[in-house]
Amino acid sequence: MQANSPDNNDIRILDLKSGLVPSCLYWTCDEVCDFFESTLNLPEYKETLRSNGIDGKRLIYLDASHLPKIGINDFKHMMLITKKVRELLNMNDPFWNRSISFTPRDPIELYYEAKSLSGSKSDNLTYEDFSQSVRNAKWEPPKTNQGFIMPSC
User: Fold this and answer.
1) Where does the record place the SAM domain (predicted)?
2) Who's near 61: CB < 8 A, 6+ residues apart?
């Protein structure tokens, strides 16, 4: 399926109509490069972004653990990039000490991860469909081998 097929455009329109999905999720690699140049004032990373195929779907991967893997090693740049990407995607800061006994993360953040994958399943996924499947899933806290709920630390 091509990137500009009517099906993908319909999905993009449905996502953007929801009001919860930011338009940057559908940016091309060139639009991400423009963002780095105009907003972040970091044009030196344009070729890095292009060679790694960073488009809107893959913005979620621009965090402190992934940036060095694609060649962005300047700590101040890493902090700026991760901060601005979180702002673009309306994501909360990750908590390094988050307990697994907590309820799952915000559905929109889980949607970004599902949408970042390649393939027709993620290409055809809308936020509405995804949120229905997440909302209907039964979440239970972690339990011990005896079936007791594990205490949170």
Assistant:
1) 27-91
2) 54, 116
